[in-house]
Amino acid sequence: MTAPDAQAALKTCEQSPPDAMVLDLIMPGMTGLELVQALGDKVQQMAVIMLTGQATIDSAVQAIKLGAYDYLAKPLEANRLRTALEKGLRQVELAREANALRQRLESPLGSYGSLIGKSPPMRELYQNISRVAATDAPVLVSGESGTGKELVARTLHDLSPRRDGPFLALNCAAIPPTLMESEILGHEKGAFTGALERRLGCFEQADGGTLFLDEITEMVPEVQAKFLRVLEEKQVRRIGASSTVAVSVRVVTATNRVPAQAVKDERLRSDLFYRLSVFHLELPPLRERGEDITLLARYFLEQFAEKYGRTVLPWAPDFAPALKEHAWPGNVRELRNAL
Predict the structure, then answer these.
(1) Cβ proximity of 168 and 208 under 8 Å
(2) Distance between CA atoms of 17 and 45, rounded to whole angstroms?
(3) H-helix or E-strand spanning residue 259
């Protein structure tokens, strides 16, 4: 199907949404970016390839954020366009599979995969997860301690095409700085004192699946540089090895710090931050989740009653108000432990 301008294309998409769309950035009237924005959620169900003779990083980033699959500069090479369309159409197929899985995971009781809650902030979070889950885009999850960052990472994995692959979680704050490089890259036998056998690093262990690195700002700067290189080259060189190993890993990272402040404080390299935060998910603290507090309380009480063979007792009249009045500085983790 062809369209002479963006307005006509928008009308065509509303009547018969295509699987893929190739459009120009600069057009009379509505621009390509404005068209993608006007398509809204429909753009998640099609592979949008943006073309332009005036390529800039800002316009490319904006196009991808709005949902475009790829961004090609003119003069256009037919093979590049063909490759982009083939990959984009495959991405559309995966997105539809993820959407079907999401519908199976989401229950009317307010749960979404491993996450529980039906407050507006959580519903917004579910929507954002469903948008990015089918892609391989790196995701940075931020939020206070105890808000469920690892649960978000697991849900992203369960909704992704990599769901049959491994899910590996690693807490950077729990690894001594001297062992961090070996944990990330792995090592060969005899690479250093105490290296009695070859050990695969977390990238190789998570090959074909998802790697979740919690407290990424606790990774020492020297290892951050090597971590960035693996992300960019998709290859790992173990400590003491003479060759590299190709890896295919979807990376999800998390921090309980404000990411921009962590960069400013030099706890996180700026180039690594931009590489990790292609998509940023911010988790709301429990105190801002309203009715989710009592929803979670009932869920945990039922869990513990089943685990210990006890009867779930009725709540005292002042119990629910007391739950809501508490600030819960430890968030969901504190609520669970209290119950």
Answers:
(1) no
(2) 8
(3) helix 259-264
Show the tokens assigned to 27.
């057009």
Tokens 């809650």 belong to: 117
Question: Number of H helices and number of E strands within the chain?
Answer: 14, 14
279-282 β-sheet, strand order: 167-171, 210-214, 250-255, 139-142, 279-282
134 CB burial (10 A radius; 0-12, 13-18, 19+): buried
- Residue whose pair of structure tokens reads 């902030």 in the numeric block: 121
- Structural element, H or E, at residue 299: helix 292-308
Mean per-residue pLDDT pooled into runs of 10, the chain (339 residues): 90 89 88 88 85 74 81 87 90 74 58 84 91 91 96 93 94 90 89 82 95 95 92 92 92 95 94 94 95 93 92 90 95 95
**How many Cβ atoms sit within 10 Å of the Cβ of residue 79?**
8
How many residues in the chain? 339
Q: Is the peptide bond before 138 cis (omega within 30 degrees of 0)?
A: no
In whole angstroms, give the CA distance from residue 237 to residue 338. Answer: 45
> Which pLDDT belongs to residue 322?
94
Are the C-beta atoms of 20 and 47 separated by less than 8 Å?
yes
Cα 13 from Cα 142, distance rounded (Å): 35
Q: Which domains does the chain have, with CATH numbers?
A: 6-99 (3.40.50.2300), 136-284 (3.40.50.300), 287-338 (1.10.8.60)
Interior/surface letters 17-38, b for 16+ CB within 10 angstroms, e for the rest = ebebbbbebebeeebbbebbeb
Contact predicate 110/45, CB 8 Å: no
Q: Nearest 5 degrees, angle CA 332-CA 334-CA 337?
A: 110
82 alpha-carbon distance from chain centroid: 27
Phi, psi values for residue 109, rounded to 5°: -85, 0
